């Protein structure tokens, strides 16, 4: 612990105050407000909120559409995470061999991170639209093969591909950094013992990458729950027939289109608990279980 | 490693090229679509080579989406979020690391916890706050009875109100209210050797002088890293501006982009103007790509240090 400090604590207070005020106004207050709304119901004729206990939660958990939304979110989380993590890991581990063209490959894998979710959504919606381009051509050869406007599974598939595409760059950056923090001497020792490239990947690099791997995994799942709004909104708007109505999207819809603040707040609380649980898993469980050094 | 692996090298290149193609192909298709007329875009068999309409479509998208004005708005917000974040996280981390007071750790945790819940999760109540940024303070006053006391004593009813909807402050401030940068700065400040602090004190420098003349010059890389991430983050904001802005003069570019194409629906309707929409997509994605590619080193560094 550090021993040299400045003594004027009023300066410290001045330094910390702006951040605390902003965090209180835009983080702690809204979060507590969400709790308040989740346990109360606004009276239709005005006159404030009445306490309803767990009624809002009961209403949501009794709603089949909500369970659909949870199911859809899980499918999206697993699909997009698996796709992007596997892809990024493969690319990172081979890029890390640093053959000719390494720098070019690296930039090529990183740039998609810069693109806004709605731009990704629009681009993929165009690519997958049955009304133009490649998909229209395929549909002419095999009539009605591809129609995400009617087919919920296909719509989900295209949202997953877009989400995974957007996430590959982020995962690639972390995997590459993780690989490069593995001590060179370990890999050299492996080579001395006669392990070839693929063997070294399997027995040295992949196991040592495990902490990064789990970190990326949890971050991806969390992001898929919270950060998917832009893609869903521009690609499918939750349709067809709620087939891509992710939890974040449903909160937005119920809260701002349906003006059901209490319902949306209760859904927010459930999503918050989910995200907190995932963060907790990340901090506690994973960092302890996977430890090789 | 010095070993000859010709077959594996070819396989490695094949895998990497395949990955590049997967990442670049959508971009290529967007460029192709943006460089044809609508008839050519929906033609069968599809055109797989760029056409000659690119400039015309870009101009059309620029005019149709009022992208000129949107660029200005988005730029102001991005710069605002960037500077706000850098300044706030720098001074907060300074206040936490270089002073010795009992509230140090509680304050750190109070700020650190905000990393857990992104804006999207608490979007509904945050919107209510944006409608009146003094609502939290009003609530505090009401709950603590101060409103009542003031009312009883002076007959004045305390009603604080500050509407942030349709304003730069409303767009920027909620995006600044997380711990990303503070954490990055704290990590960096903890690596500053104590001798530096002692030397500064010996030379008679106060805390502010130390911050300005020693820490800020030392944290240039940090600033660059944070700046790139925050620029991209703010430029790409979608959900929050969608809610806070109803007055089009404050619309941000990602929101405007999504309006170039009618919402996805089963009822059909008109054929979306894909060529214009794709040209718009190109324009919107360009600035952050330039920033990320040009500032690659700092960007990667910042990303890894803020999230870990």
Please specify the SSE layout and strand pairing.
The complex is a heterodimer of chains A (293) and B (308).
Chain A (H helix, E strand, L loop, with lengths): L8 H30 L1 E3 L6 E3 L3 H7 L2 H32 L6 H9 L6 H12 L4 H9 L10 H29 L3 H9 L4 H12 L1 H17 L2 H7 L11 H11 L3 H29 L4
Antiparallel strand pairs in A: 1-2
Helix pairs in contact in A: 1-13, 2-13, 3-7, 3-10, 5-7, 5-11, 7-10, 8-9, 10-13, 12-13
Chain B lengths: L5 H29 L3 H4 L12 H11 L2 H31 L6 H9 L10 H9 L3 H10 L1 H9 L13 H9 L3 H11 L3 H9 L4 H12 L1 H16 L3 H6 L8 H6 L15 H21 L1 H12 L1
Helix pairs in contact in B: 1-16, 3-16, 4-5, 4-9, 4-10, 4-13, 10-17, 13-16, 13-17
Q: What does it look like?
A:
The complex is a heterodimer of chains A (293) and B (308). Chain A is mainly alpha-helical and 293 residues long. Chain A has a single domain, classed as MetI-like (MetI-like fold). Chain A contains 13 helices and 2 strands; from the N terminus they run αββαααααααααααα. A two-stranded antiparallel ribbon of chain A has the order 1-2. In chain A, helix 5 packs across helix 7. The radius of gyration of chain A is 24 Å and the shape is globular. By secondary structure, chain B is mainly alpha-helical. Chain B has one domain: MetI-like (MetI-like fold, Orthogonal Bundle), CATH 1.10.3720.10. Chain B is built from 17 helices and no strands. In chain B, helix 4 (67-97) packs antiparallel against helix 5 (104-112). Chain B starts with 5 loop residues before the first helix and ends with a helix. Chains A and B meet through helix 1, helix 3, helix 4, helix 5 and helix 6 of A and helix 1, helix 4, helix 5, helix 6 and helix 7 of B.
